[in-house]
Write a structure and sequence with these properties.
Strand order of the largest sheet: 2-1-5-3-4
Number of strands: 5
CATH superfamily of the largest domain: Beta-grasp domain
CATH topology of the largest domain: Ubiquitin-like (UB roll)
Structural class: alpha+beta
Bound molecules: FE2/S2 (inorganic) cluster
CATH architecture of the largest domain: Roll
Shape: elongated
Number of domains: 2
Largest sheet: 5 strands, mixed
Length: 197
């Protein structure tokens, strides 16, 4: 392994919001010796209301950066190839599959993950409704389900059952909790409009 590669991996492995090395590189317009298109670079994102900087390669996916650099392991990657929806997060309020979304595209954007309960009222209301409706079994798909549901209620506060099914159709659940998920979304929709059920 070359010296340059060793340095990059070392920085990436410890990158955290207040990491001094990343912050120093972030103040430079261009990291010395990293000019080529395949080189690592610093990106900045606002995740769940907090500012983060991370050193990423062009090939790094958003889910890997969230989990391995920022320590936000709530986002899962069940298939890691864009088929199951389990890695869904919101980028500027739009649901994306973070296993196929390159981290460099997130530079300067607002990210919402399943850890954003205290930052986003719709997500918090959905999580509470999820528990009441018993919408989770093994739980592995549920972070992605919750983020797709959050995106739905942000753009459509009163979805019909058919609209819920369509919005959630990209999220697979091997445990088959689909009906409970629909119930949870309807419950959260009602609560957000001031209803008790
Ligand atoms: S882990 Fe991204 S779609 Fe399955
Ligand atoms: S709750 Fe188990 S895969 Fe969905």
């Amino acid at each position: 392994m070359s010296a340059a590669t060793t340095t990059i991996v070392s920085v990436a492995a410890v990158a955290r919001p207040n990491n001094t090395a990343v912050a120093e590189l972030a103040t430079q317009q261009k990291a010395p010796g990293l000019e080529d298109a395949f080189a690592a670079r610093v990106i900045r994102m606002r995740v769940n209301g907090k500012e983060y900087s991370a050193m990423v390669y062009p090939r790094d996916t958003l889910v890997n950066v969230l989990r391995e650099q920022l320590g936000l392991i709530g986002t899962k990657r069940p298939c890691n190839r864009g088929e199951c929806g389990g890695c869904t997060v919101l980028v500027n309020n739009v649901p994306v599959l973070s296993c196929t979304y390159l981290a460099v595209r997130a530079d300067g954007k607002e990210i919402l993950t399943v850890e954003g309960r205290d930052y986003d009222k719709i997500l918090k209301t959905l999580q509470d409704a999820w528990v009441e409706a018993d919408a989770s079994q093994c739980g592995y798909c549920q972070p992605g389900q919750l983020m797709s549901a959050t995106a739905l209620l942000k753009r459509n506060p009163t979805p019909s059952i058919d609209e819920i099914k369509l919005a959630m159709s990209g999220n697979l659940c091997r445990c088959g909790t689909y009906m409970n998920i629909i119930e949870a979304i309807q419950l959260a929709s009602s609560r957000l409009r001031g209803g008790s059920s």
